[in-house]
Write a structure and sequence with these properties.
The structure holds 2 protein chains of 2 kinds. Chain A is an alpha+beta fold. Chain A contains 3 helices and 6 strands; from the N terminus they run αββββββαα. In chain A, helix 2 packs across helix 3. Classes of the chains: A alpha+beta, B alpha/beta. Chains A and B meet through helix 1, helix 2 and helix 3 of A and helix 1, helix 3 and helix 4 of B.
């Protein structure tokens, strides 16, 4: 490559990198903030860790349940295990009424970086509707959100185990 | 005009004078060369910028925030290494895709040289990617890198494919290293090289499913998808579809095999639509002779005569001249007339498309003389503005020497036969007595610094020529060299 072309390429490279860095800079700040808040919550007891998925056996002290009576039917909620992933901690709460899964609420979702939070907010509703339809934690993971999905379903399975569902 | 390949004239008959082309316009070749070099620079810049863009994708996603912790730093390094590594792999595939834009700008040889030089860096980056990500993920979850790798393998979908991909990449690069390549037959090396497609194919799923960078709904995902799909389409189009189309279009059939010397023979073929190949003289094709025991081998040979378009009464003609070098080319000598031929090409810049000056110097040795023969037939120059030097141990090694002499007479070219045993030392490309008598390149060619120099012959010999040509003040863009021993 001739010198002039090499110089032009170098300048263009610097420009592209700068543009990328600029558009990522504000994300970096929010990302750092969430990381800090997360590290404190992750120290709470009874967590299980793994490379995204986990065998799903509830650790001691999690899987707590509470029942509320509404009329003739009983709705009970069960909390799943906290599953740690590299993107943050995931924990879900399941509501069971008349032997059916009626609701899944995320208590914590991956939010280590802006991207993880974005993924979570997209994956969680899809997973919820799939779970409600399948009436089990045995559903497909979401493409592009494998780690989050796996952690979500692991936590859910633990909750269902606790409920003897 | 009468054809050299006309069945009723023998291969070494006198050719008719070439058609009087229009006189070269002033600076026509300088302009052509300037444009070609600008295209080459542009392609180089695009290559570099694609690597930079891969890093920018990650920066734009807030990737730089990862450097705040040890785990984050390791993961960030791993991701950047993976992005650049994959970008290099895609560039390598594009360089090997025989895309006309690339071939016309830098030539097939140079493209493959760059392809080769990227192999090791790409592998190191991909290894670093695996290592750093395992350390980074592991540190974030309190696992050692090995356990983390196992956990990724078992638990995360698509990750086992990524591990398979890594193993394939290692196998491909190791078998491609020259030292290893020499120990295995070419076909084995070729099949292993095909595994690259498997390696890239198995690497792609985890990039989109595991990494958050290319999650659904991000513009980064679209960019990366376009890059991967574009590369795949380029390969399918230029390496599969185009060769098939060219083979069907031209319907080449071997018409006869003519012995030029005890171990050199010309294969003449007839075909259709050969006017589409005009100007291909000097460039090479990959030839596949569709006969039992032959069809699976393709051979790179240059045309040794400009293609002759057919007309209503007779088919067009094409000729290659081959030296009996390996087992494969020995079998070619016994190829039967009537054998169908599949082709890929033409490729390479050993043609008029590479010209940058009005004067031409051609220097060839051995079988490397034959591409010069076809280039000499068509490349434009004024009488008295071309010089041809051909080297052989004796007259019988000046393959197609009669044809070259006839062309030189017809077009006003100064021709030198350099005969005799080889010399050693600085001017090893010259015969011994010539070199000892103190003659050199300048004795044969005046004003070489303002001419295009085409060199074709065995590598060590050509290297010696190129040294002297460069010493004579010929800049790189005027030097055109075709490797002829691969």
């Amino acid at each position: 490559m001739r010198i002039r072309a090499a110089l032009a390429t170098a300048v263009a490279s610097a420009g592209i990198l700068l543009a990328g860095w600029q558009s990522g800079a504000h994300i970096a700040e929010t990302g750092a903030a969430t990381t800090t808040s997360l590290s404190s919550s992750a120290t709470s007891g009874g967590t299980s860790s793994g490379g995204g998925t986990n065998t799903g056996s509830p650790s001691s002290g999690t899987g707590s349940s509470s029942g509320t009576s509404t009329g003739s039917t009983t709705a009970a909620t069960f909390d799943g295990t906290q599953v740690q992933t590299r993107f943050g901690t995931v924990q879900v709460r399941v509501t069971i009424q008349d032997g059916k899964i009626t609701e899944v609420t995320p208590l914590q979702l991956t939010d280590a970086e802006r991207k993880s939070a974005q993924i979570s907010s997209r994956a969680a509703p899809v997973l919820r509707s799939e779970v409600l339809q399948a009436q089990s934690a045995n559903v497909q993971t979401i493409g592009g959100a494998t780690v989050t999905s796996d952690a979500y379903l692991t936590s859910l399975q633990a909750a269902l185990d606790a409920a003897n569902f | 005009m009468t054809s050299l390949l006309n069945p009723d004239t023998s291969a070494d008959s006198m050719p008719a004078p070439p058609p009087a082309g229009r006189p070269p316009a002033v600076d026509r070749f300088r302009t052509q060369s300037r444009r070609r070099l600008a295209r080459a620079d542009l392609l180089g810049a695009v290559g570099w910028l694609s690597g930079v863009a891969a890093v920018a994708l990650w920066l734009a996603d807030g990737g730089a925030s990862g450097f705040s912790s040890f785990a984050g730093t390791m993961t960030a390094l791993g991701i950047v290494a993976g992005l650049i590594g994959m970008d290099l792999v895609l560039l390598m595939l594009l360089l090997a895709a025989r895309i006309p834009v690339v071939d016309n700008a830098i030539g097939h040889d140079r493209a493959l040289e760059i392809h080769k030089s990227l192999g090791k860096p790409a592998l190191y980056l991909l290894l670093a990617h695996g290592l750093f990500v395992a350390i980074g993920y592991g540190a974030a979850e309190g696992l050692d890198p090995l356990s983390e790798s196992i956990s990724l393998w078992i638990n995360v979908p698509d990750m086992w494919l990524a591990f398979v991909s890594m193993a394939l990449f290692i196998a491909v690069v190791v078998t491609s290293l020259v030292a290893v390549r020499r120990k295995f037959p070419y076909e084995f090396w070729y099949v292993v090289h095909l595994l690259t497609y498997a390696a890239v194919g198995t690497a792609i799923p985890h990039q989109f499913s595991v990494g958050g960078l290319f999650a659904e709904g991000t513009w980064q995902r679209w960019y990366w998808l376009a890059l991967c799909i574009g590369t795949g389409l380029a390969l399918a189009w230029f390496r599969v579809y185009q060769p098939l189309a060219a083979s069907f279009r031209h319907q080449l059939t071997v018409s006869r095999v003519v012995r030029v010397s005890p171990d050199v023979f010309s294969i003449e073929m007839t075909g259709r639509n050969l006017e589409r190949l005009s100007g291909a003289g000097g460039r090479f094709f990959l030839w596949r002779f569709l006969a039992p025991g032959q069809w699976w081998q393709s051979h790179p040979f240059s045309l040794s005569a400009e293609p002759v378009p057919g007309d209503r009464n007779r088919p067009g003609k094409l000729r290659i001249t081959v030296r009996n070098l390996g087992e494969g080319s020995a079998r070619l000598a016994r190829i039967r007339p009537g054998t169908k031929v599949a082709i890929e090409g033409p490729y390479g810049l050993f043609s008029t498309a590479a010209r940058s000056r009005d004067d031409v110097v051609m220097i060839g040795a051995g079988i490397g003389i034959t591409p010069l023969r076809s280039l000499l037939e068509t490349t434009p120059f004024e009488p008295g503005h071309a010089t041809v030097l051909i080297r052989g141990h004796d007259e019988s090694e000046l393959f197609l020497g009669q044809e070259i002499m006839a062309l030189c007479q017809a077009r006003g070219v100064t021709l030198f036969h350099l005969l005799g045993p080889r010399s050693h030392g600085d001017h090893a490309w010259l015969p011994r007595d010539v070199a000892q008598a103190g003659f050199g390149l300048h004795s044969y060619v005046q004003g070489i610094a303002d001419a295009d120099v085409y060199v074709c012959g065995p590598s060590p010999w050509a290297a010696s020529v190129i040294r002297d040509v460069e010493l004579a003040g010929v800049p790189a863009e005027q030097l055109h060299y075709e490797r002829f021993d691969w």
